[in-house]
Amino acid sequence: MNTGLRTCRRISGLPQAARCLLAPLLLLAPVAHAQTAPQSGGQSDPDPVLAPMPDIGVDWPDMGQPDAVTPMVELPPETPDAQRQAVAPEPSDDPVEEAVTFADAGEERRYTVRLTGVEEIADTQFITRFNELSTLHLGEGKPANLAQINRRIKEDSDLLDRLLRAKGYYAARVRGAVSAPSGSDRLAVTFRIAPGTRYLLSSVDLTGLETTGEREAKLRAAFPPTAGDPVDADAILAGQESLKVALAENGFPFGKVDEPEVRIDHEERKGDLDIVVNPGAYRTFGKIVMGNEKLFSARHVQRIARFHPGDTYMASDVEDLRQALVATGLVSSLTMTPRDAGDGEHVDLAIEARPAPLRTIAGELGYGTGEGYRAEVSWTHRNFFPPEGAVTLRGVIGTQEQTASFTYRRNNFRRRDNVLTGLLSVSNIKRDAYDARTVTLSGSLERQTNILFQKKWVWRIGGELIASDEADAFSNGNRRTFLIGAVPLSLTYDGSDDLLNPTTGFRLGGRLSPELSFQNSSFGYARVQVDGSVYRPMSDRIVLAARARFGTILGSTVDRIAPSRRFYAGGGASVRGYGYQAIGPRYGPNDDPVGGKSLAEFSLESRIRFGNFGIVPFVDAGNISTSFLPRFRDLRIGAGLGARYYSSFGPIRIDVGTPLNPQSGDPKVAVYVSLGQAF
Hints:
Elements lengths: L3 E6 L9 E6 L72 E2 L12 E6 L7 H10 L1 H5 L6 H21 L6 E9 L5 E8 L5 E8 L8 H6 L11 H17 L6 E2 L3 E5 L4 E9 L5 E7 L7 H7 L10 H13 L3 E10 L5 E10 L3 E10 L3 E14 L3 E10 L2 E10 L7 E13 L3 E14 L9 E16 L7 E7 L2 E6 L10 E15 L1 E17 L4 E13 L31 E2 L4 E2 L4 E13 L2 E13 L10 E12 L2 E10 L10 E6 L4
Parallel strand pairs: 1-9, 4-6, 7-10, 11-13
Antiparallel strand pairs: 1-2, 3-5, 5-6, 8-10, 9-10, 12-13, 14-15, 15-16, 16-17, 17-18, 18-19, 19-20, 20-21, 20-22, 21-23, 22-23, 23-24, 24-25, 25-28, 26-27, 28-29, 29-30, 30-31, 31-32
Helix pairs in contact: 1-3
Pfam families: Omp85, POTRA
Main location: membrane
Keywords: Membrane, Signal, Transmembrane, Transmembrane beta strand
C-alpha cells in the first residue's frame, strides 16, 4: 500500500495554504527511467514508482528567486554542430578537465559518476538510495553517447532533488556536467550540489490523540519528531508507523493514523506538520472465536495465548499467538481478525485455520563405520487425538539394532509449551559394549524449547519402567535380566543467542535419575550429570566455543549396574575421532568397552565463517572410569577439522577427527555428519 505525505506550499501573504498536492513518499524501485526534471516555474511531475525512498512534494518557488533550485546544465539543441559542442563544468578547484569533444555525435564512451557538495549531509542511506536508483549508475561501465548521458543526468538531477527534499533541503541547487579528464579514457559526470538551508518543523500537531485520555502522553511519546527538528521524511514516516504500533499495543485495535500533512513556508524555511489520528475506542481482549474446531478448540487456543480476557488489547500478543499456532505444524493458512464484541468494552479474536497435511511417512537408510547398516521408517499422525495429540509408529532394522516403538505426544498440554509424552518400545541392540533385549514403558512432562521460541529455562520430569535381558564382558557370555524403575529429572538454562548456531552466551544443565534395579536382589543408585558450554565471539567471523561434561553414578558397582545404564564416551556428540562408546576401560578376550561409573569430557573449537560456509578446527578429550570420580590422567584426546554450511534452517556440519592417543582397535579417522553445531 502506498504511503504519502501531503504537503502544501504556504503562499506569502495568505493566512493558510493555498494549494496542496499529494506526493508519494515511499517509492518502489528499481525502474529503468525516472521523470525528467521540472521545468522552470512549474510543478514537479508525479514521480514514478522507484525504490523505497521518502519524499515531500511541494510547489517550487519561482526559479528567478534567490533560493530557487537551479536546473542542471543542459546541452544545446541537438543540431549537427551543437552535438559536437562541449558541456563544461563550472569553475572549481578540481583538477583541470578538458571539455567533451566528439568527432561523431554518435560516439560512445564509458563514464564515471561523482557527487560533490553533500559530504556533510549524505549519510549511508542517502548514498545507497542514489546508487540503487540512479540511471547513470545503472548504465555505468557501458559505453553511451552524449545524448544518452545528458538524459541520464537530467533524470538523476530530479532524483537528487527528491533525496535532498526527503532530508529537509528544499532550497537545494543541483548542477550536472560532463567532461573529459586529462589522461583518462572515460568521461566524468559530476553533480555539484549546494544543499542550502535545512528546513525545520515549526509545529507538530497530532489531532485526535486528545481523545485517548490517560494514554495520550504515552502515545504522543511514540511519535519522536517535535518542533525544531528537521523536516525529515524518514523520521516523520517512521514516527507515523511507530504511532500506529503504539495504538495497537495500548488497547486501540481499530486505530488509524492518516497521512502526514506538511505545510512548507519557503520564506521562513520552516514547515508545519499535521497528522489526523482516529484512535477509535479503547478495548480489552474478549473471547476467542474459532471458525471451526476440527484442529483446535477455542479453549485450547486460549491456553496457548499469552493474554487473558480483560487484558489490554495488544497486537504483539495476537502476533505471538499466530506464531505459536503456526509452530504446531497443523495449519496451512491462518487468519486472525479483531472484532468488536458489541459491549463497549471488549474485542473478540476471530480465528480461521485451514488444516495442513496431518500424516507423514519418513524413511532413512544409512551405513556407519562401527555401526553397520541401518534402515528406519516411521508413520506419524500429528493430530490423531485432537487437539495436538500425535501418534508415531517407528521401526528400525539394522546390523546392530532392531526396534519397534509407539509414541504418543501431546503439545501444549494443559498450558503453553508443556509437552506430554508416552512411549512403548521393544528393541534388540547389539553393540561392542553390550547386547540388550529391552522392553521400555516411559512417560514424561517437559517444557521444551524450539527455534521459534527459544527459552531460557527448560525442564523435564518423567518415569521409566524397563525390563532388559543383557550381556556384556563382565557376564562371561551369560545373560542377565534387569528390572529397572527410574525417575529422570532435568533442568537446563540456555543463555545463548541461538538454538542451533550459538555465537555468544552460555548454557548450563543438570540431570538426576534415581533408579531402583532388581537382578537377583534389589539395589538402588542415582545417575548425575552436569553439562556446560560457553560461546565467545572473537571477531565478526570467529566464535570460540568450549564445553565440559561431568557425570557420576552414586551407589552400587559397575558390574551390578545394567550395561545399558552406564556411562559411555566417544563419537560425534562426545569425543570426535573415536568410535561410538569406544572410550574407557575394556575387558574380556575381545577387549570390549564396558562403560563406567564416572564421565569427564571437554571440547574446544574455533568456528570460522566465510559467508554461508565455514571451517571448525577442534580438540576433544574425555574418559570413562569405573571409580566414583573420573581419572583425568587417562584422558583420550581427539582432534580434527570440520566444515559447515549455514543453511536457512541451521548449520549442516561435517567433522573429520583422528585420535591423538588411541587405544588398540581405535580407528585412524572418523567422520560425523549432522544438523547443528556439535554443542
